[in-house]
Amino acid sequence: MTERIKVTQMKILLAVDGSDHSYEAVRALKYFARADQIILLHALNVPRPAYPMMMPEVTEELYQGLERSMREDGERLLDRMQSLLPPQAGPATKLLRVGSPAEVIVTAVEQEKVDLVVLGARGLGPIKERVFGSVSHRILTLAPCAKLIVNEPVRAMRQVLVPLQGSYDMEEAVRFLKLKPFREPAELTLLNVLPTVRPPWPVEAAAGEQLEEQALQSARGFIEDAAARLQAIGYQARGRAVLGTPAESIAQEALTMKSDLILMGSRGRQGVTRFVLGSTSHALLHKMPCPVLVYH
User: What is the DSSP string of 100-128?
Assistant: First the structure.
C-alpha cells in the first residue's frame, strides 16, 4: 500500500567560490525540485597583513582596503551565480559574509535552518583547491543537514545508488526521500556491503561459505524491506547485498551501473560521524566520477 506523505519544499544553501566545481554546483540545481528558498552564499576569507614592523593603523587600513576589494568581487560573483540559476530552481537571496568558509557555511546552515547544502568539492587554483577541498570535508562532518558535494559535472539524477549500512541508515534515507528532493523520478539501487564474515581461525571452506551465505541472506532480507519502504512512497527501488569493503564496493557498483548520484548517510546510531559510512563518504569524494549527496 502506498504511504501517504506530505511533500514540503526544501531550503537550499548554495555555497560558491567561482571555481569550475562551483559553477557545476549551480547547474546541479536543475535536477532538484523547486526549492522554497535558495540562499547563495559566498564567504570572504580576508587575510590579515603579516608585517610585524607595520603600524597598527596602517595594517588596519590595508585590511579594510582588501576587504572592500574582495567584497566587491564577491558581490559580482553572487550576481553572476544568481543569473545562472535554473528558472525553476526557486526564489534566491544573496548572502556575503566574512570568515573562514567552513565556519561561515555551518553558521548559515544553523541560522537559516537549511535542508540541503550544495557546494563544489574543489576551489580555485592549487592552494584554494586544497582549502575548499578541506571545506567540503568539514561540511560533511559539521553541517546538520543534507550535503551535496559536486566533484564532477552533473548530467542527470536518474540512477541513484543508495548504500545502506543498517536500520538507522534506512530510516534516515526514507525520511530524506520523503521530501521528494529530485525534479524527475529517480531509480534507486540500494546496496548493503558486508565485510568478510569468515572467522579468523581456520575453518573448512564449505563452513566458511555457509557462514557468508547466511549473512548475505540476512542482508538481502534487510535490503528487500528497505526497497519496499521506498516503493511505498513512490520510488522505483531494487536492492542487492555484496561482500567486500564499503568504499571499494560502492565505487565499483556506481561505476558498473553508471550512477548519476550516490546518496548515503554520514552518521551512526549515536550520531557519531566516525561511523563506517561516515568515513566512507569522505573517501568516495576522491574516488567517484559522480556527486555524493550525504543525508544527515
Answer: -HHHHHHHHHHHHT-SEEEEESS-SHHHH
